[in-house]
């Protein structure tokens, strides 16, 4: 029987080990044996806390999504409710700074992204993330654009975020946050200007 309080230590330890192993060998090569070795625990601990590899993979994705959501919420919390363009920029920045840009996290995101096409639970988690991003953007854009345009521009910004993030994740030099901001803000300015004409 694990000691009281150990889940708070073991679960993050196993999630971090999962990301490290995925970074080294990819999702398909990330076996329970390699993950438990990386974490310095027995393979039985993974089954005990997560019910097996699938449960651990899902929890790893949830941790990444929670961390991302917390980054967005923290960035928005400090901005006035009517500072819509600043809030859009904060949402954009949250996708290209901190935890989301760590090598092990980008590799894990990328692996999950491709794997979610074949796994219903991971696909559901990916859809939640996508809907959350578009919802945040749409909320701010509705104050600047008519609703129909706000929906289109929100989808456009989300596509730019995904595309730039994907290219950066595949690039050996990583994600260029400044270039991302410039590209997306250029698109946003153009859309806002067009709506005034």
TrEMBL record:
User: What region holds the HTH tetR-type domain?
Assistant: 8-68
Family annotation (InterPro entries) = BetI_C (IPR039538), DNA-bd_HTH_TetR-type_CS (IPR023772), Homeodomain-like_sf (IPR009057), HTH_TetR (IPR001647), Tet_transcr_reg_TetR-rel_C_sf (IPR036271), Tscrpt_rep_BetI (IPR017757)
Q: Which Pfam families match?
A: TetR_C_6, TetR_N
Query: What sections of the sequence does the record tag as coiled-coil?
Result: none
The record's GO molecular-function terms, alphabetically, read: DNA binding; DNA-binding transcription factor activity
Q: Which domain of life is it from?
A: Bacteria
Which Gene Ontology biological process is one annotated for this entry? Answer: glycine betaine biosynthetic process from choline
Which keywords label this protein? Answer: DNA-binding, Repressor, Transcription, Transcription regulation
The biological pathway it contributes to is:
Amine and polyamine biosynthesis; betaine biosynthesis via choline pathway [regulation]
What this chain does, per the entry, is described as: Repressor involved in the biosynthesis of the osmoprotectant glycine betaine. It represses transcription of the choline transporter BetT and the genes of BetAB involved in the synthesis of glycine betaine. Repressor involved in choline regulation of the bet genes.
Protein's UniProt name: HTH-type transcriptional regulator BetI
What is the protein's species of origin?
Answer: Vibrio xiamenensis
């Amino acid at each position: 029987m694990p000691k009281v309080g150990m889940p708070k230590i073991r679960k993050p330890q196993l999630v971090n080990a999962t990301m490290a192993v995925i970074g080294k060998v990819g999702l398909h090569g990330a076996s329970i044996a390699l993950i438990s070795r990386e974490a310095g625990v027995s393979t039985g601990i993974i089954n005990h806390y997560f019910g097996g590899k699938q449960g651990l993979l899902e929890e790893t994705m949830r941790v990444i999504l929670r961390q991302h959501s917390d980054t967005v919420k923290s960035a928005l919390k400090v901005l006035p409710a009517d500072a819509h363009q600043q809030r859009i920029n904060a949402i954009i920045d949250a996708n290209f700074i901190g935890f989301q840009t760590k090598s092990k996290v980008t590799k894990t995101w990328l692996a999950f992204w491709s794997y979610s096409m074949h796994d219903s639970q991971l696909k559901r988690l990916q859809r939640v993330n996508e809907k959350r991003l578009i919802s945040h953007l749409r909320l701010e854009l509705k104050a600047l654009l008519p609703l129909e345009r706000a929906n289109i521009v929100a989808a456009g910004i989300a596509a730019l975020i995904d595309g730039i993030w994907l290219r950066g994740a595949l690039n050996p030099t990583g994600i260029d946050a400044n270039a991302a901001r410039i590209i997306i803000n250029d698109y946003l300015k153009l859309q806002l200007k067009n709506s005034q004409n």
